[in-house]
Design brief:
- The complex is a heterodimer of chains A (752) and B (539).
- Helices cover 30% and strands 16% of the residues of chain A.
- The longest helix of chain A has 15 residues.
- Chain B is an alpha/beta fold.
- In chain B, the strands form seven sheets. Chain B has a six-stranded parallel beta sheet with strand order 10-18-11-12-14-13.
- Chain B is globular and about 65 Å long.
- Classes of the chains: A alpha/beta (752), B alpha/beta (539).
- Chains A and B meet through strand 3 and helix 24 of A and helix 1, helix 2, helix 7, strand 7 and helix 18 of B.
């Protein structure tokens, strides 16, 4: 088709998942005609997935709110922004100024991290609310990984990511990047990169109970029992020590605690864990030997290793094995990114830092410790529902749907319904926001600028890519940073303008970059800095500030807002480079392989190994490329085709229970039960069943017409809020004990 | 590398609806309803694999994981789509929604073949919790031609039965099998007990050639031959004489090619199929060395699809020859038609070593009469060169099907189809009566063509229901069971079919085969009897 005069092609980074793919979008006016992968993108090189093709549909989504709504009895009424913020002011006035006795809290979902304005300005909202009680989806996801990173390297942002483009031997545990596009290791086109790895003679090992698409494409598939990764990895460490395969190489100078870890691993010989893990001692030994023999090897784990009962130990051992095999901080091993916009490990003094201090306060009801300033999502419902001083009465939700994505959905829904005040930044009336008093909708992704400040902290290559908004705001829409600044002002009742709050944030960020002599702005006055920036307000000013004060500032690769604007396909800053020891921010400048918090949890694992594998079915999640956690179910092109919210059941378990493919079954946990359609699937081993998370959309008040046409099953009706990974308080969604029974023995019997 | 669609493609277009970049299309120049298969444009495919999950016949593979026998399809997909405009807009998709206004709705579907199964699937997606479907099946096994028409060596295509089975496990569906409309219950009686009736009974008889001596022994309809080697209970009484060294098939559609392939296949191929053991035995003792396919028109206009021709070309030790490749076409030649002829020419030019058997294509060849007094000895044909007798001990006519045989609906005498207007049955007293599949449109299209055909009919049914054009049933739905019992029908149901299914797989497995079909009704009832916990059918 020839481009008509009204047509144009826009280049932008897909903001929907962690992969940061470049998109090339053809539009006619404001109508997206076609979306293709941007072949010129320095990082994604043309890769994209079905979600990336939906930005036009999201823009046209009739259920996406284009202006604020406030509760009016049982329904919502459209209002202008002034009215909406006035309502917030009125609702939250009674809760102000209580400090640690606050009766409010914030929940922030993933979308905030996928959005330049959202990730930069959320803090002003939290500050505006003035409550220390903060929850995110991290505690139902990857918190164990962050905990281990903080303990080992001094910051939750210091993730050692698998250098998949250069490794020879990659071990993936509980990860399915063929469906997820990868996580905690940003790499657009994971499948392509794995294929390239194998083409250059490398090997991919997948450790997963399920024969996933990723496992199908691996050289070796090890199938442990659900939730046994921590024990399996302990046994790998055992073999490394036992067979003298430990060689720290260059990291040797900064690693301590090796002997302590050796002593711990000694309790987990492959023979002793085999019954628990279901993996033969020979396989464990072979895995350990091949890891140590490979020129460049790396172990990587994802949700299957974190949202599980021993998530912290599993995440610990992944990093520990990378260190013990000499693969930390070297090409082809586990490396530390250097993000252009900086992060905790590029600021302040190099090599040492305050380290990690948890439990500065605790949750009221269960006494859960704060970790990284957050309380676990598993405790949220009880904090709202349990009577007494300190009971939460007001909440702010930023881009999240905890009723669907948190544990114990029914309690969570009851809790949100009982709040005196709830304000949500969200485009939709969904299962959580339907309880809101005020909903403040952000613009559609195509109407926002974009830069992945967050995901570049764990990208497998250092790149910087900025996207301008493709489409203007509609009349009555407000930019997200302005929404957040004005919300902050309404929450704290200060009456400050968005501009004032924005300026204060810029000054705060300058201050954070001028504390230490190594910091970019140590010698400059805030006003000199502001004058040097290329934008005068909003996220672009902050981004310019972050780039100009970032780790490349004094090098030939220095980048600024002008540079990223001039390079719509991205600026390539090259492959990851060794960063030890400067990347560290631990108090002693060392990596302690045996932190107390983790060591103390080992006895719990040892007991589980001794108790042996239980019987019965274990429920796990399942990643699907056409889903995105609890949202995007309202996009028609992602909802066509077969039902996806089905219960996968192994042929053996189906046979035992006399369940046919397509049959309606009841899935029951200790908490509750749901009904789902069974899908007998050879990918699953006996004893494991699987439901994808994020579905529901069934209550009448939810205004998601496409999603409700195909509602599915909410798995979190089944998940109790007290099955947790102990050190990190992360919900153990994977491995839940369930029973599955046929709802109908046969379709209505006709025989007589 | 992109994904690739291969031979088994049934063109039901499930894949098209999930493709985020609209890269799945018929071959260049082909219209989607006449397409034999679909192809992926490698220039726009993003390799996401969303289509793989949807494909009911497992025809789609990542290019890097193509089975060796299908490697050529990577190039075929690319060539078949190379003329497409890669910048054309991607159409916006819609999800199939249930109709909130639709109240109680009971639908009887006559026939559990692909068209009936697709109709039920569409109804389940569109109807609400008050929908009820009664699936009426004449045999004790469902899936019609998906079970007994698709060639027994095309197990990938037959896997569509698993998709139907899964979808029809919905608790709103009830099965009444071993129930024949006209024998056990009349169409009128079904109408009285349902808001709507959908005729999905197909066309069960072979079309006649209308030539002299057609009924002589050794001259048969392809419908009977295919039904026999596919284990259809209606076609088991035949004793096909395979002792001659040649067979002639009139017609060159995919059915003719299927038969030719089965007749020249080696034993290993037959044993790997789900052909009943007795038929495998019989065919493996066949002396037939040459199979000739007779077509009236040119090679351009041959009715077979290129993918079926390719499958024939893949058989080891089988030579393909053709006469009349240069017969002039009588219609305009499309690129797809030219491609088909070119492929045939290429196949005839190959050097086949160790030729065991030969398949010969004859074009511009009009059948005149079956030759032979008490038994067929050949087929007399008229060509440009004059009359000729093709010697053959077996003559099969594969020129389509006719005859729904259903009493109570007006039938087009020439085609055998039920008279209808886009699926609404026309005629006196036919309110609430619908038709799908071959009984609606005649014996055309591939298996997957039924999906959109049935969806069209269901759309009309739902429109009629919403505007109150359907009558509420006069009789309780439940009274169907009483009626059938009074008539002495031996009704079998879904779990009875599952018992047969399991038994077939068990028997086949014991012999290293995918299944051993139960081909006889009495045998089927025995299997059911043994499996029924409460004592079984009264036979």
């Amino acid at each position: 088709m020839k481009l008509e005069p009204t047509m144009r092609t826009a280049t932008r980074t897909c903001p929907l998942c962690e992969a940061t793919c470049g998109l090339s979008i053809t539009l006619d006016g404001d109508r997206v005609l076609r979306t293709a992968g941007d072949e010129l993108d320095v990082f994604s090189r043309g890769y994209m997935c079905p979600k990336g093709a939906t930005l036009g549909e999201l823009y046209d989504d009739p259920d996406w709110l284009h202006g604020p709504v406030v509760r009016d009895g049982d329904s919502f009424r459209s209002v202008d922004w002034d009215t909406a913020f006035a309502r917030v002011d009125e609702l939250f006035a009674p809760f102000r100024g209580r400090g640690k006795d606050s009766v409010t809290a914030t929940f922030m979902g993933n979308p905030g991290a996928h959005n330049l304005a959202g990730s930069l300005y959320s803090r002003v909202v939290v500050r505006g609310l003035g409550s220390p009680f903060f929850f995110t989806s991290g505690t139902v996801d990857h918190r164990p990984k962050e905990l281990v990173s903080a303990l080992l390297y001094g910051s939750m942002q210091t993730l050692a990511v698998p250098d998949i483009d250069r490794t020879d031997f990659l071990v993936l545990l509980g990860a399915n990047p063929y469906e997820s596009n990868g996580s905690l290791a940003t790499a657009p086109g994971w499948p392509r990169r794995l294929e390239a790895l194998r083409e250059r003679g490398g090997e991919v090992v997948v450790v997963d109970p399920v024969r996933t698409r990723t496992a199908e494409n691996a050289d070796w598939h090890i199938r442990p029992r659900v939730g046994s990764d921590a024990a399996l990895l302990m046994s790998v460490a055992f073999v490394l020590f036992d067979e003298g395969l430990v060689d720290l190489k260059d990291a040797g100078g900064v690693v301590v605690g090796v002997d302590e870890l050796a002593a711990i691993a000694r309790g987990f010989s492959p023979e002793s864990t085999s019954a628990f893990t279901g993996v033969s001692p020979d396989a464990v030994r072979e895995l350990a030997r091949r890891l140590s023999a490979a020129p460049r090897a790396v172990v990587y784990g994802r949700l299957g290793t974190t949202a599980t009962e021993f998530g912290s130990i599993g995440s610990w051992l992944i990093d520990a094995i990378n260190i013990l095999t000499g693969n930390l901080d070297r090409p082809g091993g586990a490396m530390f990114p250097m993000p252009a916009a900086g992060c905790a490990n590029t600021r302040g003094e190099s090599k040492v830092g305050p380290g990690f201090r948890p439990a500065r306060f605790h949750s009221r009801v269960r006494g859960a410790p704060e970790i990284f300033g957050e309380l676990p999502l598993s405790c949220l419902a009880e904090e709202i529902l349990t009577p007494g001083a300190g009971k939460y009465r007001g909440m702010v939700v930023i881009g999240g749907n905890p009723v669907v994505s948190g544990p114990s959905s029914e309690a969570m829904s009851t809790a949100f319904a009982s709040l005196d005040a709830l304000v949500c930044i969200d485009p939709y009336i969904n299962d959580t926001t339907r309880h809101a008093d005020v909903i403040l909708p952000p613009p559609s992704p195509l109407q926002r600028s974009h830069f992945d400040t967050y995901f570049y902290t764990w990208a497998v290559r250092n790149v910087a890519n900025y996207s301008e908004p493709v489409l203007p705001l509609r009349p009555g829409q407000l930019d997200e940073w302005e929404i957040m600044c004005r919300l902050a002002s309404a929450l704290d009742g200060s009456g400050r303008s968005a501009r004032e709050i924005d300026d204060q944030l810029a000054l705060d960020m300058i201050a954070e970059r001028s504390r230490h002599p190594d910091d970019a702005y140590y010698d400059l006055s805030p006003h000199e800095v502001l004058a040097s920036l290329e934008a005068s307000a909003g996220p672009e000013r902050l981004l310019d500030l972050m780039l100009k004060s970032g780790p490349y500032r004094d090098s030939s690769r220095a980048v600024s807002l002008a540079d990223v604007l001039a390079n719509p396909h991205g600026v390539d800053l090259g492959p990851l480079e060794p960063r030890l020891p400067e990347v560290l921010r631990t108090p002693d400048g060392q990596i302690n392989l045996a932190p107390d918090i983790l060591v103390e949890d080992v006895s719990r694992l040892a007991e589980a190994v001794t108790d042996g594998p239980g019987t019965g079915l274990r429920l796990i999640g399942r990643r699907q490329m056409r889903s995105n956690n609890s949202w995007m179910h309202n996009v028609p092109s992602l909802m066509t085709g077969k039902d996806r919210s089905t219960l996968y059941l192994s042929p053996a378990d189906a046979e035992t229970r006399r369940i046919d493919d397509g049959q309606l079954v009841r899935v029951s946990s200790s908490l509750s039960s749901v009904t789902a359609v069974a899908e007998v699937n050879v990918r699953l081993p006996e004893g494991v069943c699987s439901l994808p998370h994020g579905f529901l959309h069934e209550p009448d008040a939810v205004a998601l017409s496409t999603a409700r046409a195909r509602p599915g099953v909410n798995t979190n009706r089944l998940t109790p809020d007290n099955v947790l990974d102990v050190p990190s308080w992360t919900a153990a969604f994977n491995g839940l004990r369930v029973e599955v029974t046929p709802v109908d023995k046969t379709p209505e019997a006709t025989r007589r | 590398l992109p994904h690739v669609i291969t031979r088994a493609c049934c063109n039901d277009r499930s894949c098209v609806e999930v493709c985020p970049v609209d890269c799945i299309h018929p071959a260049d120049g082909e219209h989607s309803d006449e397409a034999s298969m679909l192809y992926i444009d490698p220039r726009t495919c993003i390799d996401c694999g969303a289509c793989v999950v949807e494909c009911p016949v497992d025809a789609i593979f990542p290019a890097a994981a193509l089975p060796t026998s299908l490697l050529e399809y990577a190039a075929i997909n690319a060539e078949s789509t190379q003329l497409r405009d890669v910048s054309s807009p991607v159409p916006r998709r819609h999800v199939v929604r249930s109709e909130p206004e639709l109240g109680p709705l009971t639908v009887a579907v006559i026939g559990c073949g692909p068209s009936g199964a697709y109709a039920a699937t569409e109804l389940l997606a569109r109807g609400g919790p008050q929908l009820r479907i009664d699936m009426i099946e004449r045999l004790t096994s469902p899936w019609g031609l998906a079970r007994a028409g698709v060639a027994p060596d095309h197990l990938d295509t037959k896997a569509i039965a698993d998709v139907f089975a899964s979808r029809l496990r919905d608790p709103r569906v009830r099965f009444w099998m071993n129930v024949e409309v006209g024998r056990d219950v009349t169409l009128r009686e079904l109408q009285e007990r349902a808001d709507a009736v959908i005729i999905a009974s197909g066309l069960s008889k072979g079309r006649l050639l209308g030539i002299a001596n057609e009924f002589v022994s050794g001259s048969h309809s392809a419908v009977d031959f295919v039904g026999w080697y596919n284990g259809h209970p209606d076609h088991q009484a035949y004793d096909f004489d395979l002792s001659g060294d040649s067979a002639v098939i009139v017609g060159n559609g995919n059915v003719a090619l299927d038969i030719a392939r089965i007749l020249v296949a080696d034993d290993a191929r037959l044993r790997a199929s789900d052909m009943p053991g007795a038929a495998v035995e019989h065919i493996s003792r066949s002396r037939i060395r040459k199979v000739t396919l007779v077509g009236r028109r040119s090679a351009y206009e041959a009715a077979f699809t290129t993918s079926e021709l390719r499958a024939l070309g893949d058989l080891p030790g089988v030579a393909i020859v053709a006469q009349g490749l240069d017969v002039e076409p009588t219609s305009r030649v499309t690129p797809a038609m030219a491609g088909k002829r070119d492929l045939l020419e290429r196949l005839t030019a190959r050097d086949v070593t160790d030729v065991r058997r030969t398949v010969e294509f004859r074009f511009g060849c009009v059948p005149e009469a079956v030759v032979g007094e008490r038994k067929a000895t050949g087929l007399r044909v008229m060509t440009d060169a004059g009359l000729e007798v093709l010697d053959a001990g077996l003559v099969l006519s594969a020129v389509g099907s006719t005859g729904s045989g259903l009493v109570g609906a007006d039938v087009d005498r020439a085609r055998g189809t039920v008279l209808n207007n886009d699926g609404r049955v026309t005629g006196e007293g036919q309110r609430g009566m619908y038709v799908v599949g071959w009984a609606k449109r005649g014996p055309s299209g591939s298996l997957g063509t039924n999906r959109e055909c049935s969806a069209e009919t269901v759309q009309h049914l739902i429109e009629d229901a919403l505007v109150g054009k359907l009558r509420r049933p006069e009789q309780e739905r439940e009274s169907l069971g009483d009626l059938l019992m009074r008539r002495g029908a031996h009704v079998t149901d879904w779990s009875d079919w599952r018992a047969i299914d399991r038994e077939e797989v068990r028997r086949g497995g014991a012999d290293g085969r995918p299944r051993e079909k139960v081909v006889d009704l009495q045998e089927a009832l025995k299997v059911i009897d043994l499996a029924r916990p409460e004592g079984g059918v009264q036979v």
